[in-house]
Amino acid sequence: MSGQGLLGAVLAAVAALGVFAHTALGQADSNRSDSEAALEPWAPGSVEALAAALEQARAERLDVLAPTAYAQAQKAHEDALRDAARGRDPQRVSERVQVGQTALRRAIASATLARQSFGSLLKAREDALLAQAPARAAQVWLRAQERFQQAMKENEAGDIPKAQRRAAEAEVLLRDAELTAIKAGVLDEARALIAQADAAKIERLAPRSLEAARRHLGDAEQEIQRNRYDLAAAQRLAARASYEARHAMHLAHLVERALQQQKDGQAGLEALMLSWEEPLQKMAADMELSLRFDEGMQSSLRELTERVQQQAQERRRLNQELLDRDEQLSALNAQLQRLEARLGGVAEERIALQRRVDEQERLRANLARIEGQFTPEEARVYRQGEDVILSLLGLRFASGRSTIGDDGARLMGKAHEALALFPDAAISVEGHTDADGSDSTNLILSQDRADAVKQYLVSAFALDPEKISSIGYGEARPVATNETAAGRARNRRIDLVIHLDGVR
Questions:
Q1: With contact defined as beta carbons under 8 Å apart, do 257 and 205 qualify?
Q2: Distance between CA atoms of residues 451 and 443, nearest Å
Q3: pLDDT of 36-68, one tens digit each?
């Protein structure tokens, strides 16, 4: 029911007590019949009818917007109930009810004025309640409630300037309570975990992980401060803070146990390191690799990473082959249906279809050749619709610069060899950055780097500049997370897009 509808219901209930009620809201006739029907079992002026009117008034929050008058109406109802229970004179009971009626009329008028005068205050209170401020920000909420109640009471008393001052104070406190409650809802888990880690003195054993947890928590709080109504980024950062705090406690437990075992002469540090090698050995066995750790873990990890990348690339190639085969089969089936429907032109259509199949075979052979030219650290090669993407992950630029140095010359030479397999294709040079820095700076930098690669291809290899375009996307098209160094490195890249559409 709308606010005015509920107030109309209250008025109807008061009217059912035999009292003429007329306020600034007027009579809400659409609701009167329902209210009166609900009160039919009770006689006009009865205690029960006053109870119904009080219940409807509470539903419309008159106890909040007009606390003094509502409390007087409620007390009159309690007095009437007590007198009726004691068998007092019915006239006395009726007088109590009339007192309640009068108080309710005052409450309706005060609530109407409050809604008209203090809309932003009431919205702030609703937002704070939605954020669960009474539970999550109890102290601030109590102070805000005190000011709010004072404002409503001054409004009832007719002291509007004083009510406005109290309302302004209450609104500030309510918004503070809302923000505190939102932060508590998003951040409390991470805060508790970090406090637990601090109490356990985790910092001496896992300082970096715990510091990461604190940093993510601080970033999450800043995100909420910037925009309390869009919490997606803050929630991700808070989740990361919780993870890092749990990670720190886990690492500290492992280190502490290993140090204790070492102290007890049980070679705890060696056991800890061997436990790290065991799952890597299992992964390697599943990939038919034989890893060695006699010179550390880095070379073995690099070998595992290369194998994973190779398998991912092989999976993409096989998926593309399946798509190509499906396309060819669909074309052949369609061709057979047409051939069955007519007799002429069979040889020409078969030849055209065979040419298309041969083109697909040449394309797969070229892709396999390109893939073999690059290591996983240098480039990724994959199909995307009618395009071939050559992502030059190994082409490095100095921070904030767009100059291709001598160390990039070899990779650019290999890229040229790949492009030479598609002499008639148009080329798009796409520049990409990670998320560090401002959007505008990254966009300009990515464009400068794309232009530099285009110019290098034209000047060093005499490619046709009319067939090469360059564009910078900044940080808008990441291929990995920007929360890790490895992910940011993958996002800083130049993509050469070879457009095969129309190339035959």
A1: no
A2: 12
A3: 333 333 334 688 888 999 999 999 999 999 999
CATH class label, 375-499: alpha beta
Amino acid letter, residue 411: L
**Any residues with CB less than 8 A from the CB of 271 and at least 6 apart, and which?**
258, 261
Q: Is 27 helix (H, G, I), strand (E, B) or coil?
A: coil
Distances from the Cα of 356 to the Cα of 18, 55, 382, angstroms: 92, 79, 20
Query: Quick check: helix, strand or coil at residue 471?
Result: strand
For residue range 78-137, what is the model confidence (pLDDT) as tens digits?
A: 999 998 888 888 888 889 999 999 999 999 999 999 999 999 999 999 999 999 999 999
Contacts of 139-144 with C-beta under 8 Å, sequence gap 24+, read 140/173, 140/176, 140/177, 140/180, 141/177, 141/181, 143/173, 144/170, 144/173, 144/174, 144/176, 144/177
Domain-wise residue ranges, the chain:
3-117, 139-248, 315-368, 375-499
Run of H or E including 327: helix 298-341
Angle at 395 (CA atoms; ends 393, 401), nearest 5 degrees: 120
Query: Would you list the DSSP string of 301-312?
Result: HHHHHHHHHHHH
The whole-model pTM stands at 0.56
Least confident of 231-245, 306-320, 418-432: 306-320
Distance CA 399, CA 434 (A): 11
